[in-house]
Amino acid sequence: MGDAGWRWRTIEHTGDLGIEVEAPSLEQLFVAGAHALAGVLLGEEAGAAASEPVKATVWRELALEGPDREVLLVDWLRELLYVQISEDLVLVEAELGEVGESRVAGRVGFARPSAAGCVERELKAVTYHELEVSQRGEEWFARIVFDI
Prior knowledge:
With 148 residues, this protein is α+β, with helices and mostly antiparallel strands. It has a single domain, classed as Archease domain (Archease, Possible Chaperone, Chain: A, domain 1, 3-Layer(bab) Sandwich), CATH 3.55.10.10. The chain has helices at residues 26-41, 69-86, 113-116, and strands spanning 7-13, 16-23, 46-48, 58-65, 90-99, 103-111, 125-126, 132-136, 139-147. Strands 1, 2, 3, 7, 8 and 9 form a six-stranded antiparallel beta sheet that branches. A hairpin with a 2-residue loop joins strand 8 (132-136) and strand 9. Helix 1 (26-41) packs parallel to helix 2. The protein is globular. The two termini are 28 Å apart.
């Protein structure tokens, strides 16, 4: 699984693009989802925690609340997608101080696309279609579909 114990991969989805994410904790699931979003933008098909990530040059503090962890994950990814698109950045680091059933807070680091890689895919939105966030034994699992 990578140093932090999480991994993600793209999945086939008619007309859209989906990802599946696995992690040992809910916090790492949100971190993995953030990296998966960035990886999808860069045209990657799968990924795991990197031991030597690209260094962030721009940091943002984020704190979001939602009625449950599913809505919270979608809102988290939507916020990250907005920053990446509106400021021409790619997420390279995520440090979460709080992740719970209804709140996520932490800081995320971004780099310019040239440092992190070239943006190869355009994503329009993070959707609720076929959304799943669940604990499977000792692992956390999420399925998210992006509108492309």
